[in-house]
């Protein structure tokens, strides 16, 4: 009988606690995708939200770079939760060693066309929760025009013929990229 009493005392508390946690989560607005690639024997995975150029509420076309994605501020590199990069082996990106593990990716485009990929040690946060003190590295991205307009934010990991790979971010009429190698 004592166990039953404890159950009816504790169960409602747990139920309310679980409801509060669920209520605190923000709903996803965009579809999500996981991409993986094996580069030089190393599996690399990126998990990210894929927003569209059109506003999901109004259907109106949005200006992406310098609009939805502001210049001079870190952007979550996708939608909803911060984008995650996981590597099983260390990577070398623009002279910086990224140890094996999972990281959040942010992007900071500038009005002059420059952009940085920010590799952040904090994970699990909603994409707008950014702590600069957790940055592992900031590396320059190469900017190019895309051949065709890209309506939905897209990321890719491509193998380079000479070894290593390239991480690509494509949206609207712009592609940003950075090459990397796998450290053995």
Question: Your description of this structure?
Answer:
The chain has 184 residues and is mainly β. It has one domain. It is built from 1 helix and 10 strands, in the order αββββββββββ. The strands form 2 sheets. The chain has a 6-stranded antiparallel β-sheet, with no helix packed on it. Strands 5-4-10-9 form a 4-stranded antiparallel β-sheet, with no helix packed on it. A hairpin with a 2-residue loop joins β1 and β2. The radius of gyration is 20 Å and the shape is globular. It starts with a helix and ends with a strand.
Write a compact overview of the structure shown.
The protein is mostly beta strands. It has one helix spanning 2-24, and strands at 32-39, 42-49, 83-87, 91-93, 96-98, 101-109, 115-120, 135-140, 142-159, 165-182. Mean pLDDT is 88; it is low at 11-24.
């Amino acid at each position: 009988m004592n166990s039953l009493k404890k159950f009816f005392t504790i169960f409602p508390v747990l139920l309310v606690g679980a409801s509060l946690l669920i209520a605190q989560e923000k709903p996803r607005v965009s579809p999500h995708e996981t991409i993986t690639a094996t580069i030089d024997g190393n599996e690399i995975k990126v998990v990210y939200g894929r927003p569209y150029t059109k506003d999901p509420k109004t259907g109106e076309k949005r200006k992406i770079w310098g609009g939805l994605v502001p210049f001079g501020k870190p952007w979550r590199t996708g939608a909803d939760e911060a984008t995650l990069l996981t590597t099983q082996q260390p990577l070398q990106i623009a002279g910086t060693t990224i140890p094996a593990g999972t990281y959040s990716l942010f992007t900071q485009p500038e009005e002059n066309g420059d952009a940085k990929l920010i590799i952040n040690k904090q994970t699990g946060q909603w994409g707008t929760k950014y702590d600069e003190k957790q940055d592992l590295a900031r590396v320059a991205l190469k900017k190019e025009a895309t051949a065709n307009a890209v309506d939905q934010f897209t990321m890719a990991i491509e193998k380079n013929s000479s070894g290593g790979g390239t991480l690509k971010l494509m949206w609207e009429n712009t592609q940003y990229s950075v090459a990397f190698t796998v450290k053995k």
